[in-house]
């Protein structure tokens, strides 16, 4: 074996001849900018019991759209809401539910004739959809430090 002056290694030999205690500089991969997500404005749901129409047909699958400021303001002018503020959720849901089974025309009268359990489901679903799913927060018990979730939603629709 011949000894001579050390020459820098090139190519594949360079990768294998580097000393083990010297780390090669890390090259971070170029990150692509995050893809912009399209805004989702409609959300499918399935009622726990279902709306029963005049013909006895049960309608369970529906679609709710995001509420606009107008959707929350217009019902406040409704005489039924002014006389009974609890009616706000019925009128509001009648505006934002765009489809329910094969019901031809969705309106607050349909919501008014739903079972109470379906109305409660839709009120919760409305809060989730319009708060982007952030109606719960993770917290910890101050005594045992056990993590759990709490509901942050308001008591009625339009009152978050």
UniProtKB/TrEMBL annotation:
Residues 1-35 are annotated as: Disordered. It comes from the Bacteria. This is Secreted protein. The lineage of its organism: Bacteria, Bacillati, Actinomycetota, Actinomycetes, Kitasatosporales.
């Amino acid at each position: 074996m011949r000894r001579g002056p050390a020459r820098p290694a090139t190519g594949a030999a360079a990768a294998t001849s580097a000393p083990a205690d010297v780390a090669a500089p890390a090259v971070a991969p170029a990150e692509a900018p995050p893809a912009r997500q399209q805004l989702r404005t409609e959300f499918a749901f399935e009622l726990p019991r279902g709306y029963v129409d005049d013909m006895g047909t049960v309608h369970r699958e529906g679609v709710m759209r995001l509420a606009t400021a107008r959707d929350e303001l217009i019902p406040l002018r409704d005489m039924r809401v002014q006389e009974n503020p609890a009616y706000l959720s019925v009128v509001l849901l009648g505006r934002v539910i765009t489809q329910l089974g094969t019901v031809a025309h969705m309106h607050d009268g349909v919501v008014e004739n739903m079972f109470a359990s379906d109305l409660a489901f839709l009120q919760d679903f409305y809060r989730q959809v319009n708060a982007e799913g952030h109606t719960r927060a993770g917290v910890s018990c101050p005594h045992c430090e056990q993590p759990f979730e709490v509901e942050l939603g308001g008591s009625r629709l339009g009152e978050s």
